[in-house]
Amino acid sequence: MDHGLWTKTKDMRKKIVAGNWKMNMDYEEGLSLFSEVLNMAHDEVTGKQHIVVCSPFIHLHSLVQMAKGNTKVSVGAQNAHQAESGAFTGETSAKMIRSTGAEYVILGHSERRQYFGETNELLAKKVYTALKHSLKPIFCIGETLQERESNVHFDVIKSQLAEGLYHLDAGHFGQVVIAYEPVWAIGTGVTATSAQAQEIHAFIRKEIAAKYGQEVADHTSILYGGSANPKNAPELFAQPDIDGGLIGGASLKSRDFTDIAKVFN
Ligand code: PGA
Q1: Whole-model pTM?
Q2: Selected catalytic residue, list 109, 111, 153, 201
Q3: Residue 248 CA to ligand 1 centre (angstroms)
Q4: How many angstroms does the Cα of residue 227 sit away from the middle of ligand 1?
Q5: pLDDT digits (tens, 9 = 90+) for 178-232
Q6: Which domain CATH number covers 226?
Q7: Helix 27-44 and helix 254-261: axis angle, to 10°?
Q8: Which of 4, 97, 199, 245 is the most exposed place for a label (fewest CB within 10 A)?
């Protein structure tokens, strides 16, 4: 594929820089961080890229109110329950999240898979329920270090995609954002090289094309996550199949997060 064609297919896709605050920021801290992000995005983000801030549940409603009328910044949650409603003490449903005005939800983050036992099968249900309530899933996939070292990383990615998402029809699949997050790169300061990330992103797109056709694959945003920062983001985001990032640690600093988003200016 020549570079011109790469650029052309890459242009079709929405560029997204999403922040994952994880379990950080009390209420006031979250509001002030978000207000900084809104101001910086307003002054400095000049391209068509979209910013999504995925906060703890407690912030969602307030952040949505703060972002009202802002077309560059959306708000998302970090998890949602698979059931519609009911006796699930302590859980939050997709419908509740959507009712705050939040538009996105991270599903299948490796920390949820690892610490809360979330399986592909469970995630398939969560994805379905989220889409039913018009929440766009940011669906995370990625291999552990051990899986990479045993050379099964392509198989792992393939089954995470198939078991987590392939129950969707093409129309619903089109609402999903994929985030490739190698587990060994999350919060470790070790980033995948741009070549390693591109290799997997291209593989993911090829798999999607095989299942849903090239057109759908060409329009699917695939984000990279794992120790992304303002220094390494330009090279990562320049790869033909990398359409943005899911940012953990660096999303807690408005300057760093905005600088990452500005890579697409
Ligand atoms: P990190 O986290 O940027 O701190 O590595 C990314 C993520 O877990 O989404």
Answers
A1: 0.96
A2: 109
A3: 3
A4: 6
A5: 999 999 999 888 888 999 999 999 999 999 999 999 999 999 999 999 999 999 9
A6: 3.20.20.70
A7: 40
A8: 4
